[in-house]
Amino acid sequence: MTTDETRLARAYLLRVAEPPAPEVVSLVADFGPVRAAELVRAGKAANDETAARRHLDVAARDLEEASGRQARLVIPEDDEWPAWQLLALANAAARGVPGMTEPLGLWVRSHARLDELVQEAVAVIGARAATSYGEQVAGEIAYDLAQRSVTVVSGAAYGIDGCAHRGALGANGSTVAVLACGVDVAYPAGHTDLLSRIAVDGAVVSEYPPGTRPARHRFLVRNRLIAALAAGTVVVEAGRRSGSRNTAATTSALGRPLMAVPGPVTSAMSVGCHDLLRTAGATAVCTAEDVLADAGRIGVDATTRSDEPMRSTDGLDRVMLRVHEELPSRGGFSAERIAVGSGVPLPRVRALLPELELLGLVQKCEAGWCRRQG
Amino acid sequence: MTTDETRLARAYLLRVAEPPAPEVVSLVADFGPVRAAELVRAGKAANDETAARRHLDVAARDLEEASGRQARLVIPEDDEWPAWQLLALANAAARGVPGMTEPLGLWVRSHARLDELVQEAVAVIGARAATSYGEQVAGEIAYDLAQRSVTVVSGAAYGIDGCAHRGALGANGSTVAVLACGVDVAYPAGHTDLLSRIAVDGAVVSEYPPGTRPARHRFLVRNRLIAALAAGTVVVEAGRRSGSRNTAATTSALGRPLMAVPGPVTSAMSVGCHDLLRTAGATAVCTAEDVLADAGRIGVDATTRSDEPMRSTDGLDRVMLRVHEELPSRGGFSAERIAVGSGVPLPRVRALLPELELLGLVQKCEAGWCRRQG
After folding, report:
1. What processes in GO biological process is this protein linked to (chains A, B) (predicted)?
2. ipTM of this predicted complex?
3. Minimal Cα distance from B141: which residue of A?
């Protein structure tokens, strides 16, 4: 089966390329995952990103192990792939924002469809060393969001993240934990039970293969997925140098609403939030109503879009439009020719074509790429 | 002496017309204060605003009584009149904002010049029923502002206002209390000593004649002076229906920066501040540095302006420009003719001409008004 082959190829690439892996992503865009995997395996492409691990041909074992733990690999070829949400990463990458590479696939521990879980989702994040004030507010906002059928996305850390997940679960709502380690790795250890509950009532998600240990750099890489899977991000508490600042910056880079909860100006754990209000264009949110008011429009847009596949070019940004307009209606152009014609750099063209394909605007043909009619 | 006559006339008008008195202000703009006072006294003009009190011909006594209490009446004809600051009221009135009438004069208990006191000034205001958190923050911000030679303007009420004044005094700085009663009336009673200290190290200011008792409507009318005399307004704590909201709205109507101190979202006394952040375009300020960063530019502008009288029309708004452009360089036009020519309503023309005169851009001549050269 093609899908199995494709899934095996993506599982392999996720195992051998440490995200973000723009070369591999670009290779997949150009040749498809199966051929890209072959090229990587043979040491013929994306060597910088894959040389160290390309011998780890354990995709079948990874998929099997995941399956044994009620997990699966969701890939862009699946219906449940949250394409609209993740499109923001491709757009940001096309605008030249570094590190915004789309994931090659997502390992998911869940009983639900991933696209449905994040159809209306808000990220609620913050400091590990939260105060009781922050924990209370995070829990309340998450509870109230979940009661309104909004999924709470967070990072499963101690402090604010944990309270956000628990608040959503307390309302019998859905919550998604995006990890910087394998979905089968209980990290932090004290959240083992919490992660199991999240997997039952929501989803535990990661682009790292089963068994991957958390590492400092992986948290930063992971943060882009939290920002991308949610319609907006709420920072509840953050110190001056909190990791939440990174997710906040990514949220803005993706064009999503950034929100911060005010707190006492005398609290070190609110310094980061107030700084986001003053310097990062965050809006002040005190309640779930505030959050929905500020993130709502995008949530609604996303819903409309995913219900009704877009066939026009209305939603495209300028760069995407240039690429689309360069495409022929009949026959086909190579990515190189489109780059020369549109003036858009080749790597961006390579990243954008599959996105335009997902949108139903372009298609592959024998000679390369062309516009899709109707 | 002309000034004495003028001062008596304005003292009379302040006694007989309850502010805001747009008809009387317009009358003064057209005929000058002395003739305006005569017309009012004779019952020939602005009857709606003066009929009830025009018999109270006690200007000389008011001036004498004030003098006995180390107070004086500062009028627009005085060098120390804070013309630049109050110009914002005339501009707002010209834009049709209701209640923005300029004061006819200001009773001042102070050893210092009023214009110098408010050259760099910030309003720090808030709820009477403040929390200890709000009182602490108000005191600290006021202290730090005063240490940087910024005058703290407030309303002398219990709670935040009192802490703001005390904070400034604690730093041996200047502070200005704008009252909704006579400058000789100790209100609130518990602040009698505080008001005396403010009069020594700053100024107690009011447009209400000596002996006037505070009244609910006077606080709202007074608030426009707090907003106008300061380069920006900081709301430290405010409940959902706080009077500070009125001063905040006026601040924005005057085009001045509005700032709010964040607090716990769980505190009823921060609800008003967070609402200002969310819906009124207030910026979040945590420290005096934040306040200076947000109010600073206007403070600097105002300083530059008052040091160096403006001779060009650069700073004029659109309506003022239309009036100015309609004026002849030689001869003179009546206000009526300028109104017809410029399309600006006559009352606005009447209000704007004296302001343009203060700016040195126009002058009165025998036939009416003309541009001032050079």
Report:
1. DNA-mediated transformation
2. 0.76
3. A265
